[in-house]
């Protein structure tokens, strides 16, 4: 493992971001971990993120920021709940204890506080603390990226954009990881519908760093949101060699590629991507982004009338162990798709009841608050839809259509719920719902002209209602 090119104690001090450790090795490994997080890539020559973290803990077992990044990364991955996972809960406690026992800087203390708040599900407060750090230290990429993840999980679209916009003037092109700010900023821009500007930023990022998978991902979103299907397909294919190396984002970029095929009604091509990339990768990585993409793909295909056969059952093995996690509502809704798709009624009921229970007394857990305002009803709507009770599904979903953003994720990911409402409305026996379905399609068409999916649904509505 050669980390010699990364920043040592002195280099971090020179950037105004001193780290409380005397170990140069620990500082370099911290930088190596941060770099892989920003690039969405486990660099095997460094031993990947896990290898760097364990080497960093060996180099200085009491290095507070080492604990912040390792525990923080596990928390923002949302793959396990500190509520249930005692090992993760004790890692949070250990981080707090180490910080209290040492004379660390105010910035490092705030980092610890943010991680602790995030572990309790208090995402808004955690993000406020990360912003507090950025006010004095705008080049603290860890604070910026953790905040970005927090905003993403809250569906806080304006903040996704503005958090990056605020720090941009303080960054100079010679600084490490500078080019990756472009993709971050681009993503916030496209989630607030500034598609042209988002495209410009992402392409600038790619001209500096062609393998920046997050900038590629931003371009994929722009084409998706504008229903520029052929442009999207061409772009993903022409850049595949560049973005494939980002193991943490490759599956998600393949998912975007598959969305274009689904949009065109080319279901076989989409299923091929599912089988050879999305499912294969999610099974191997166990990463939450990979898992929810697999869930989302199968549910979208089934809504379109495609038979996905025993794929639900295979995916259930991956999602079922997460039934009681309830880390984010977004994840829960995706797990529910699988138990419904696999006709695993008991697992579906257990997930819903667990979520209802937590929503009763959410405390300061923002996700459990969202479960009460949005999550439980969307779960119920999906269950009704699965049972063929389409009018009940519409009654539950329609009032929430402008609140679904609160479950987090991106517009492209949440589009599944818009599609669900449309499918339920046009299949409902209520003529008012059918009319509503047609209205929603007109509205969809005006927002994304040239969408083959919208046209297919319009034809379906006409066929059903005449």
Automatic annotation (TrEMBL):
Coiled coil: none annotated. It comes from Oryzias melastigma (Marine medaka). Belongs to the TTC38 family. It comes from the Eukaryota. Signal peptide: none annotated. This is Tetratricopeptide repeat protein 38. Transmembrane segments: none annotated. The keyword Repeat applies. Keywords: Repeat, TPR repeat.
